[in-house]
Design brief:
The protein has about 80 residues and is of the alpha+beta class. Helices cover about 25% and strands about 30% of the residues. It has one helix at about 50-70; strands at about 10, 15-25, 25-30, 40, 45. The longest helix is centred in the C-terminal third of the chain and has 18 residues, at about 50-70.
Length: about 80
């Protein structure tokens, strides 16, 4: 996998899916879907990720964020 900036990839060491943000010092920087702290991954540690896996992770993140917010107050 080439790890083009703006594409999604899986870090095969951890199984985490992230968006490829940059290439720095021989590493690829991945950002978790939905935002968060980037992490470094060696280019040979990148794997292809299917579009349905990306969608599943986005939904998982949205559900987690929704559950962690306090309920809205009604007028």
């Amino acid at each position: 996998m080439t790890g083009e900036i703006g594409t999604y990839a899986v870090d095969v060491r951890t199984g985490r899916i992230g968006e490829v943000m940059a290439r720095v010092g021989g590493y690829v920087q991945l950002r978790p879907i939905g935002g968060g702290r980037e992490w470094d991954c060696s280019p040979d540690g990148l794997g292809e990720v299917a579009p349905d896996e990306v969608l599943r992770e986005k939904v998982r993140r949205l559900n987690r964020d929704t559950r962690s917010r306090p309920p809205a107050e009604l007028p």
